[in-house]
Amino acid sequence: MKFGTSIITSLLVASTKTQAFLAPSARRSFSISSSPTSSTIQGNARGLYSSSTDKDEAQTSSSSEKKEPKHAPRHDVGAQAELSPEEMAIQAAFAEHQQNCPKLGFATDVRTLIQYNHGFAVISTNSKSMDGYPNGSVVAFAPDEDGNPLFVFSGMSSHTKDVLSDPRCSLTVASKQFKGAADGRVNLIGKTTLIPKEEREAAKATYLKKHPGAFWIEFGDFNLFKMEIEKVNFVGGFARAGSVSPEEYKEAKPDVISEFGIHIASHMNEDHMSSTIAMIESQVPGLNAKEAVITSVDSLGMYIKVTRSPSDTDETQQFKMRLPFPREAKDRKDVKGIIMEMTMAAAAASKTAAGEE
After folding, report:
1. How many other C-beta atoms lie within 10 A of the C-beta of residue 198?
2. Residue 250 host element (H or E)
3. Span 186-243, pLDDT tens digits
4. What angle do the packed helices 258-271 and 273-283 form, to 10 degrees?
5. How much is the pTM?
């Protein structure tokens, strides 16, 4: 498995001055030591938007600058103000917290996204009618037990003619909650071919479980196809992207909590956002979130889109953070119990802090 990832988890920038939580004030490669300190954050956080590869991250920022092409792609948000000591301390605590958070592995993340997607994606084929050009179509699919996409294609569709002529194609699948660049998406690359007669009934049952209203599956002009995956590319949000081998993808299992996690997230966002904010504050004191929207829930924790305004600026910062569970959740009842425990612990910590003041 190959991937590039920063210690800070998938930051989503949306501010009045386009300034991130870790505000860059110079163009440097971003890396944080295993035990970040205020001075580390001061020196390294400034280059959060400088693009880098795994190889680049292993080099010092000075050598990276010398070797980088003059017009190398980077996210430039302009000059930024220096951070106050208090803000540096908060960011150091945040960086360390995020670094140590348990999270699903890449392969599990990918299988989970594919399994619980709404069942529609974009297939890109090599056009038969326009040689050398790609052809894109929105298609329905259902993953089989190994995560291979199954399709039901009409003989009249251009993408059907394409794969019959050249089976090489890719399928781009966005997460069910996809709204922007901070959300997950997967690109599966492989060959799509007709399913043999002896395998069609099993494939049909799998497809209808995902798309129960697909009555056209019985029409004579429609046929079942399957993509055999040869490569998997994954983008989990800002600063979290890479690839998973077909073997890793096949061996991984979808996270069971993620199947209904969005319902838990919706309930918390609608009725208990104050509890989410309290849980964040208990784990990263001083963050002072104004809004905390849970975007996903899995067996190891939650991803939350946080909005905050630092005490020493009038800017609004928005980013994604990981909030871990104290233990792995096994089912829906377990998730409810864990969140209640975390909420009560956060309330107790808040009272203790208030008493100390």
Report:
1. 7
2. helix 246-251
3. 999 999 999 999 999 999 999 999 999 999 999 999 999 999 999 999 997 666 788 9
4. 100
5. 0.73
